[in-house]
Write a structure and sequence with these properties.
Order of helices and strands: HHHHHHEEHHHHHHHEEHHHHHH
Radius of gyration: 23 Å
Strand order of the largest sheet: 1-2
Number of helices: 19
Helix content: 55-70%
Strand content: under 5%
Number of strands: 4
Shape: globular
């Protein structure tokens, strides 16, 4: 079987598996968020937290709950890293340095999972499981809760109530993420991913030397890492490590886990607003752009015009031979389009145009399909912009799902779109302008610029993957990347919840003959154009200085 045939079959199988899971998982999540009763375990959590689960919150209260929970999470994770050498299962590792501890705490709480350290050489088992893995669950749940709050803004009318954050967070963890993660972890163990609480085991090599082999609870963390579009890795080599990604099927299954919830949440959206066709339009837009990027990635990686790639038949540098170009392209496209950041190949070794595609994937705003929750609310904000543009074209007041899009709504949507590129481009400019940060660049010219641009793009989009080729474990990069992660995560959340509150207060507007149908192919095309043009116009000059200049 040649590489192209294998690639086509892998993608076809993945699409089929996602299609089969789309409806049942989407419907299940809709029932979870609309259920009137609480499970016994959930009521225990509410008592411990001290909240009334029956009290719906106005958007400012919902927002304060999100921010308070996240601030406490950052502080707790920071403290855990700093004192890990005094805790059980530390494996003898010292406490993490302050700037790196801040960076890691900001990273995992913001669902970014950027790592400026080697996991198996810096974090003990208690920190990995009690700190990082816990944040993998709750940071994903925060994103899903915010997405549901925005959906309620569309679904409800004449109210200021968006639900209860603590209820949404608890239900997401207990009813969605925990069961899926348990099943996924068992499947990963069956695929060969390790799961133990061992430290380092010394073994003799064939050459007569010795080597220390790390162990750890990898499968359980790998499951929620992918399901929650967290990224990161137990080992420095991430999903390319044979203990994390032992076989081609295990790598394919991880891609399925990455895409499972983001591609199912539009169904949840459709069910909660009472029109599943709206969800189909959103998921069609997501799938269309994902597929186009995947095809482009495979083409440039397997048929790049360079002399060496032509001689060997593809660009194989930095790719695991057991995965090949096809599965590496599939993983790279999916992980950079879902704010996951897990990798099974070395993005810095991709061709210049292939590396540029990984950058563009993130610069689209992580909405195709984006992270769990974040992808849905990001796409809905872009849908608001698309409907507004359509209204301008025909001279009508724009309406989406029965809600008028007045100046307040459009200001919030516009600010949402501007936050990420302003953060990325400003911090990239500072990094390449200062002598200290420039000294961290291992490459010069266009490729070196791409490495810096990738780092801040990954951080501000809460992706977490690394282009590498740049030393980021410095005071400057640990601090600025940490700030980029927090800005890229929580400023958009503030704007999304304000938008949700504004929509929920409105009275529904009946559809008329002049209302734009937002469930048809025309709207899918319009929304796809908005996604591509907004990102293209914003980042084209920067891409021209980096991967495009290198590739051309």
């Amino acid at each position: 079987m040649n590489g192209t045939t294998s690639f086509v079959l892998s993608v076809a199988g993945l699409v089929a598996a996602l299609a089969l899971a789309h409806r049942p998982l989407g419907d299940h999540m809709a029932r979870v968020y609309a259920a009137p009763r609480h499970l016994r375990a959930e009521r225990v959590v509410y008592k411990l937290v001290g909240v009334d689960p029956e009290a719906d919150q106005r958007w400012p209260v919902y927002l304060r709950s999100v921010l308070a929970f996240s601030v406490v999470s950052v502080l707790a994770l920071y403290a855990l890293q700093r004192v890990q050498d005094h805790l059980p299962l530390s494996l003898g590792f010292a406490g993490v340095e302050p700037d790196q501890a801040f960076n890691t705490a900001a990273s995992f709480v913001s669902n970014t999972n950027w790592q400026s350290y080697s996991g198996e050489a810096a974090m003990g088992h208690l920190t990995q499981v009690g700190g990082l893995a816990v944040q993998n669950f709750v940071s994903a749940a925060v994103g899903m809760s915010v997405a549901v709050a925005l959906v309620r803004g569309f679904a409800r009318s004449r109210t200021e109530r968006l639900g209860n954050f603590w209820v949404d967070l608890t239900r997401t963890c207990i009813r969605v993420l925990l069961p899926l993660s348990f099943v996924a972890a068992v499947a990963l163990v069956a695929c060969g991913v390790i799961q133990n609480v061992h430290g380092f085991t010394d073994v003799q090599t064939l050459a007569g030397g010795s080597q220390s082999i790390p162990g750890g609870p990898v499968a359980s963390q790998e499951a929620i890492k992918e399901l929650g579009t967290n990224g990161g890795g137990f080992f420095n080599a991430n999903s390319a490590h044979p203990f994390e990604g032992p076989t081609a099927f295990a790598s394919w299954f991880q891609v399925f886990l990455i895409l499972l919830i983001p591609f199912s949440m539009p169904r949840t959206f459709g069910k909660l607003v009472g029109d599943v066709r709206q969800g189909y339009a959103i998921v069609a837009t997501m799938g269309l752009i994902w597929a186009a990027s995947l095809v482009a990635m495979y083409v440039v990686e397997s048929a790049h015009p360079g002399t060496v790639p032509q001689a060997v038949g593809a660009s194989s540098e930095g790719k695991e031979t057991r995965f090949g170009v096809g599965l590496s392209s599939l993983f790279a496209t999916s992980t950079t389009m879902t704010s996951t950041g897990a990798v099974n190949s070395f993005h810095d070794s991709f061709t210049s145009l292939g590396g540029g595609l990984t950058l563009l994937n993130m610069q689209l705003g992580e909405v195709t399909p984006g992270g769990v929750g974040g992808g849905l609310y990001g796409m809905l904000v872009l849908a608001v912009v698309a409907v507004f543009l359509a209204g301008l074209m025909v001279g009508r007041t724009p309406e989406y799902l029965g809600k008028k899009l007045a100046p307040r709504e459009m200001k919030l949507a516009s600010l949402y779109i501007l936050v990420m590129p302003a953060t990325v481009l400003s911090l990239t400019a500072v990094a390449v302008a200062l002598d200290g940060p420039r000294s961290s660049m291992l490459n010069t010219g266009a490729h070196g610029f791409s490495e810096v641009l990738y780092a801040f793009t990954s951080a501000a989009n809460n992706n977490g993957s690394a282009f590498a080729g740049i030393s980021v474990n410095t005071g400057f990069y640990n601090t600025t990347l940490g700030l980029a992660m927090l800005i890229g995560r929580f400023v958009p959340i503030i704007l999304v919840l304000a938008l949700a509150g504004s929509l929920a207060k409105q009275a529904p507007v009946p559809a008329t003959g002049g209302t734009l149908p937002t469930h048809r192919g025309l709207f899918v095309g319009l929304l796809s154009g908005v996604v591509l043009i907004v990102a293209g116009l914003t980042f084209l000059p920067a891409l021209a200085l980096g991967p495009l200049a290198e590739g051309l």
